[in-house]
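Please predict the structure of the following assembly.
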Amino acid sequence: MMADHCTDTRWIEQLDGVVADVFNIMLQQSCEVVEDPPAAAAEIDIAAKILLSGTIDAQCLVEFPQATAKKLTDALLGSQDDWDDALIEDAIGELCNMIAGGWKSKLRTAASTSGLSVPEISRARAPDRNPPHGCSLRMSRTYAFRNSPFTVSLAIREPIDI
Amino acid sequence: MSVRVLIVDDSVVMRRILESALRHVNLDLAEVLHAANGVEGLAALEESATENQPLNLILCDVHMPVMNGLDFLLEKQRRNLAPGVPLLMITADATDPQVLQAVGAGAHGTISKPFTLERIKTCVESLLTPVAPAPSDMGDAQP
């Protein structure tokens, strides 16, 4: 299990559930949690970040190696192709959007007064992981899709009801 | 019934997914128009009206650059474009204030992402039957 700061299993299980739902519902495919991810899992080629602001302040960051991003794009579009970078980035942004929206919808805190930003895509190997000011609750989880890793990180400003 | 659909979404991937989903629904799909934001969506509506090629359904994302989905809906109504054509908001966040405003302003319902093909099929078929349900019946349900 990989959690930077948060060790509250409720938060971690909720994030795992949201990620699993996105893959099960949208792709009809599973996505497993990677316990003790290998160093290769830390390789990042594409990242997408979405901010929640309002009653809830949070950041959702997804980070993908290129190979996993390609597999995800294949799965979303239902075919294999030599997708251009813009389309792959678009797919990663959509995934981030669905995870952030799904996570938000499960919160008890008045979610209707908070909004999601559009995804911000980064091609840097070291994307800006700095969350908004005051987001002290942080967690990072590595998952595997078709045996390829990717990471989802949440940073949340407390207090917030799960 | 031959059907023309407009998909307004800044994500090319999501437009392709939605079009693919529509093609799996038992519709005589004559044409699917794509627009990347509300401004392009309005232009598509204007063109459809000018060419007397009416649309039967509009699927619209909420958060888009240039013009978002709520402003697209309000401007469409102000210009009286495609009156009576069902419009579904596509969103990853059904609790978004803009989604709630859009439904209040006349959107016929929402489809939450992630969605199943069955969810798309149910919504679209309900809206395209001769007697459409009231907007209040088309609230989103988890797939």
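The two ends of chain B are 27 Å apart (CA to CA). Chain B has one domain: 2-138.
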